[in-house]
């Protein structure tokens, strides 16, 4: 959240940003990060109230649906991002050619279930299944029609344990974890909401970039490396980076130390370095705003 908010402020993005925070009443009482972002609070569905299924990812479509019904929204277009993203520039519907009835999204090519029995089982319009996700630009009218389908199809796919296999879903863990992603694609297909797929919106640190593309979002959901240095957000899940003064991630290599074998590899590594530097800069400014003592003045 801190990284995304910091990058949002630097990006020049028009409009406002809202965090959807899903938590139980008990979790809310213990939570002390209310000031990190403008927030809409959502009842947690991490443990499904009807089935008892533990699936925190369901909170994404559930949160969007709750926000649609309970927030005062005056925006014509909505951009949906994940918390583990860094913005590098503005994302506007006119630049990416989004329109009512034609949302724009980043490609999720690994959603192979759009091409097999999974889509045939879970939508009346399997041919309309788009392999998309990550960054979504959608007209508010479309989102109002679509949000309930996103949640219902996510629940439906999650319950379909018979088709969790990797060769059907593309999920290497065969755990149903990406059910919410399929819920999005199948929900959109159900109402024939087709996407303009744009690979220039988002990239992953560590992946080889396309020449000349100015990616607007870095999605650091997967481990990435620069030489012998690596970063995996999952390894930091239990570390309190927010409340421990001057906590930061290990610094990436200095760009001057990179071996420039070819331009794309160099650019790939520079993007990875940029991602972590932005996160650490965000953490530094956060700790400074919390009046953490200057490290040089702290007693040992």
UniProtKB/TrEMBL annotation:
Its main location: membrane. It is a single-pass membrane protein. One of its GO terms (cellular component) is membrane. Keywords: Glycosyltransferase, Membrane, Transferase, Transmembrane, Transmembrane helix. PANTHER family: PEPTIDYL SERINE ALPHA-GALACTOSYLTRANSFERASE. This is Hydroxyproline O-arabinosyltransferase-like domain-containing protein. InterPro entries: HPAT-like (IPR056508), HPAT/SRGT1-like (IPR044845). Residues 14-254 form the Hydroxyproline O-arabinosyltransferase-like domain. One of its GO terms (molecular function) is glycosyltransferase activity. It is found in: Membrane. Pfam families: HPAT (PF23452).
């Amino acid at each position: 959240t801190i990284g995304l908010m910091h990058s949002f402020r630097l990006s020049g993005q028009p409009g406002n940003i809202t965090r959807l925070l899903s938590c139980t009443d008990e979790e809310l009482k213990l939570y002390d990060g209310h000031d990190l972002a403008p927030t809409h609070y959502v009842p947690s569905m991490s443990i499904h109230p009807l089935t008892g299924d533990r699936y925190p990812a369901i909170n994404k479509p559930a949160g969007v649906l709750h926000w649609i019904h309970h927030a005062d929204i005056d925006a014509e277009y909505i951009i949906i991002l994940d918390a583990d993203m860094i913005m590098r520039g503005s994302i506007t519907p006119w630049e990416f050619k989004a329109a009512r009835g034609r949302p724009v999204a980043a490609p999720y090519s690994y959603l192979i279930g759009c091409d097999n029995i999974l889509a045939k089982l879970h939508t009346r319009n399997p041919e309309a299944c788009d392999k998309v996700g990550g960054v979504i630009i959608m007209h508010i009218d479309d989102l109002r029609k679509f949000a309930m389908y996103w949640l219902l199809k996510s629940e439906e796919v999650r319950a379909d344990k018979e088709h969790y296999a990797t060769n059907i879903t593309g999920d290497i863990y065969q755990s149903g974890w990406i059910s919410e992603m399929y819920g999005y694609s199948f929900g959109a297909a159900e109402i024939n909401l087709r996407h303009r797929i744009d690979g220039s919106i988002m990239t992953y640190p560590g992946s080889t970039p396309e020449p000349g593309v100015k990616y607007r979002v870095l999605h650091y959901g997967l481990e990435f490396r620069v030489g012998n240095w690596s970063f995996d957000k999952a390894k930091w899940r239990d570390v309190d980076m927010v409340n421990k003064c001057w906590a930061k991630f290990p610094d990436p290599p200095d760009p001057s130390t990179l071996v420039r074998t070819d331009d794309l590899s160099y650019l790939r590594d520079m993007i990875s370095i940029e991602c972590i530097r932005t996160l650490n800069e965000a953490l530094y400014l956060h700790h400074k705003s919390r009046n953490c003592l200057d490290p040089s003045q702290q007693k040992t």
